[in-house]
Every structure is written in C-alpha cells, then in structure tokens.
Amino acid sequence: MDADNFFLGFDVDRSRVLDVVRAGLLAGGDETKPIRAELYKLNVYGKDAFFKPHKDTPRGTDMFGSLVLVFPTPHEGGALVLRHEGNEWTFDAAQILSATAHYELKRVAYIAFFSDVEHEVLPVTSGHRVTITYNLYWAPPPSVAFPEELSIIYPKHSNFAAVGEALAELLADPTFLPEGGTLGFGLRHAYPFEKHWKYGMPNPLDQLRGWLKGSDAALFRALQALSLDPLPWLICQSEEFSDVAVAVDHMVSLGRTEEDECYMILRDHNGVRVVEKKADGTLKAYEGNELYEDYLPKGVRTVGVFWMTKFGESNSISSEYTATYGNEPTTAYVYMVVSLLVDIGPAGDRANTKGVVGAKVMQSASQK
Ligand SMILES: O=C(O)CCC(=O)C(=O)O
Ligand SMILES: [Fe+2]
C-alpha cells in the first residue's frame, strides 16, 4: 500500500532509529551526515505471501538505502534475506520479536541496508507480517536559502547578511580599535543551562555554539564569516563593585554562599576580570577601580573589552531565573546570560588575532 493511503502513528524522525542507522550503516565520516527517511510503503503478508528477490528502485541520486520496520504482529516465517557480493544474511524479525517477548512490549524490529543490496522476503508460514518501508536519502545540509516565492520577513538583526555588512564596515574603520582588541556582544537571548553542572560533563558553553537562537545565531555566523572566532563566555557582574565584571569560558558550579560570586570565579575558576575599552583602544577609567585592585585575588588576568552590545541586566551566574522567566517551576535548569567575546586583529588585518581571548589577557595592575 502506498504512503498516501495510510496514516502511521510512528514518527521516524522522533524515534532515534535514524541515528542508529547512521551509526550502523554509514562509516568513514558519513555517520555524521544528515539523512532523511521518506515513508514508502506498507506491506501486509498473509500465509504463504513472499516478496521475490529484488533491489529497491532508486528514486533519486541522493537515495542510498532502505529502512524496513517489522511490527510485532504474531507471525512465523517471512525472514528477510539479504545478498551482496556472494554473502548472504538473514534477518528473521518474527524470531527476534517473539523470542524477547516484544509482542507484549509493542516494540518493532528494524533493518537498514544499502539500496543496491538484493533482498527477498521468504514465505510467511503463519499469522501476518506487517512492515513499513522507508527510502533513505542524504539530506541537504540545513539551508537558509528559501524559494523566492516564499516571502519571509526577518527581524533586521536576525538577518545574517545585514549583520555581516554592518560588522565588516566597522572593522574596515582604521580608527576603531586600531591595535586590535576584544569585542564583546551581550547575547539577546538567555539560554538554559544545567543547574547542577558537574565537572567532567561537556562544557555547555561549547555546545551552545550550535544552539544559538535568532539574532544571536546570525551574529555568530556573521563573525565566523569574517574569519573571526567568537567564543561564548559567562559574564558576572560584581554586586559590590558594579563597575567590575568577570568572565569565565566554561561552566562553573557555584555553591550558595555569602561570598561574592565574581570573586570566587576569579579565585577558583580561572576567570578573567573584564574592563571596558573605548573605541580608540584605551581603557575606560572607573571610579572605585583602585579599590577593587586591592581586593582582587593574586595573579588575576584582565581583558579589555569593547562592548558592541551591552551584556544582560542580570548576570549573576547562579541567579534563579526560573522564578522570573519560567512558565513552570523547575530546579534542573537555569537561564543564563551569555556574551560572545571575539578577538580582532589590528586595522587592515582584523582576522590576524593571537588566538582565543584568554591568550590576550593582560596582567592585572595588582601584579605590577
Ligand atoms: O517487507 C519487507 O521486509 C521488505 C519489503 C521490500 O523489500 C520492499 O518493499 O521493497
Ligand atoms: Fe525491497
């Protein structure tokens, strides 16, 4: 039965079958390539029904394989036999499903193979064998190009091209940070982070690069297109010294103590102190800066940042954002305010940076 004649409750895209297919069938770098499954047919085999040996008809140059799901309807026989280059392989779903009590568990058996592999279904000896077949295709990488007839209105700041142009224009200005430096972009969206982050778990700030939203994603891509290397940092503003901010490029788990969070990040988590730079490259003078100098832990590094967009209002790393922003009280995740820091080279050679922001930090005045 063709795909337009039946409805299937099973959502192949939401099941993790395609991930398994990628890992099991594709290799040599291909396992990370995006693929898609197109629903093809429903087959019902009664007693004595079979499918004679064949290769699946290619339905496009991008089709590479087939996926067959066998439902847990009681049956015997009907094994799927695969043959390729003199080798033969039998997939007896009836046996697999019945042997493991999967009938009760409502599980399905599945197999994926390359389209050029010959296969046949042996006669069903009792019951009904019900299968769904999918054609497997290489999926085009996610694209931002839409058909012209589709009219889409983007918020201006989410427009990758417009953001890129504005940045390129600024970087072409020889009076803007003439010696190079670090740009800071307070991101416009807040992002959920695991509240009880433990050391050893993947750094969520690394993962965040793939999860940026809207204008943040446009900004990130625009910076990369200019051969720059934006890095997500958490920024914390001292409650006691409002002119002082502290940045850390990895997640930190902070206990709830009376201690100033910023101070703890500097002292215990390899944080850097962030001071504001002006467009001409000089540091902005703060009131109270000297006071803070005395208070800094020994060996603290300082980075001067020109803030392109101000970082968010509430930067306290362990703040309970859920109370304010969540639609459901939860304790597992918190929203955090993230900034992108990006090094730029000197005028005329902006992509020529000395690497990550952390490598460009200055010694604090307290170390002199
Ligand atoms: O039902 C099966 O197991 C396989 C069906 C098949 O090979 C096909 O529909 O092309
Ligand atoms: Fe087939």
From TrEMBL:
Domain (Fe2OG dioxygenase): residue spans on this chain: 36-138
Record-level Gene Ontology MF annotations: metal ion binding; oxidoreductase activity
Keywords noted in UniProt: Iron, Metal-binding, Oxidoreductase
Short name of one Pfam family: 2OG-FeII_Oxy_3
Keyword Oxidoreductase recorded: yes
InterPro entries attached to this UniProt entry: Oxoglu/Fe-dep_dioxygenase_dom (IPR005123), Pro_4_hyd_alph_FE2OG_OXY (IPR044862)
Family: Belongs to the iron/ascorbate-dependent oxidoreductase family.
Protein name as annotated: Fe2OG dioxygenase domain-containing protein
Organism ancestry: Eukaryota, Fungi, Dikarya, Basidiomycota, Agaricomycotina
